[in-house]
Design brief:
The structure is a single chain. By secondary structure, the protein is α+β, with helices and mostly antiparallel strands. The chain has one domain. The protein is 37% helix and 12% strand. It contains eight helices and six strands, in the order ααβααββββαααβα. Strands 1-6 form a two-stranded antiparallel sheet. A two-stranded antiparallel sheet has the order 2-3. The chain has a two-stranded antiparallel ribbon with strand order 4-5. It is globular and about 50 Å long. The structure holds iron/sulfur cluster (SF4). The site of iron/sulfur cluster (SF4) has 11 residues, from loops.
């Protein structure tokens, strides 16, 4: 076995544990291009959680991204339509996988530099207890494949 090659390609979060603890600051739920991509199944879960009709839910909360994918609406200031500045996420228990897996996304975990760069947005990064590799792996595996 070529152990040198394995060591070089080992992701930084496998070499030393990373810490994360969400403070619910809401910074990951805002930004002009902070779209939350969702599947039809996730849209239905949120609609059902809110107890809304399909027509009302689709009109009020969903838009098509320029590439045709379904995304949650954003307010004019870039906030997610479900972000309540005082109460936090209004659909927390029904939130999409993109939200529940943050910040354990491939583009953030691709390097320590990318992880630390994301820290400028997310104050929960490198805070609290170490996160198990199992949890990180589960997050990565539950995200849809990039097309
Ligand atoms: S930016 Fe980080 S700490 Fe703030 S709500 Fe999002 S995940 Fe939690």
């Amino acid at each position: 076995m070529n152990t040198t090659k394995l060591a070089v390609s080992e992701p930084f979060f496998q070499k030393a544990p990373v810490c994360f603890e969400c403070t619910q600051c809401g910074h990951c739920c805002t930004g002009k291009d902070a779209y939350v991509f969702i599947s039809l199944k996730e849209a239905e879960k949120i609609r059902s959680f809110l107890g809304l009709t399909k027509a009302w839910f689709n009109r009020r909360y969903l838009i098509r991204h320029s590439d045709g994918d379904l995304v949650l609406s954003l307010r004019d200031n870039g906030d997610c339509i479900f972000l309540d500045k005082d109460a936090g996420c209004r659909i927390y228990t029904a939130r999409p996988v993109q939200c529940s897996t943050y910040p354990f996304w491939p583009e953030i975990l691709k390097s320590k530099k990318a992880w630390l760069r994301e820290k400028t947005r997310c104050e929960g990064i490198n805070r609290g207890q170490p996160v198990s590799l199992h949890k990180i792996q589960n997050a990565l595996e539950s995200l849809p494949e990039e097309e």
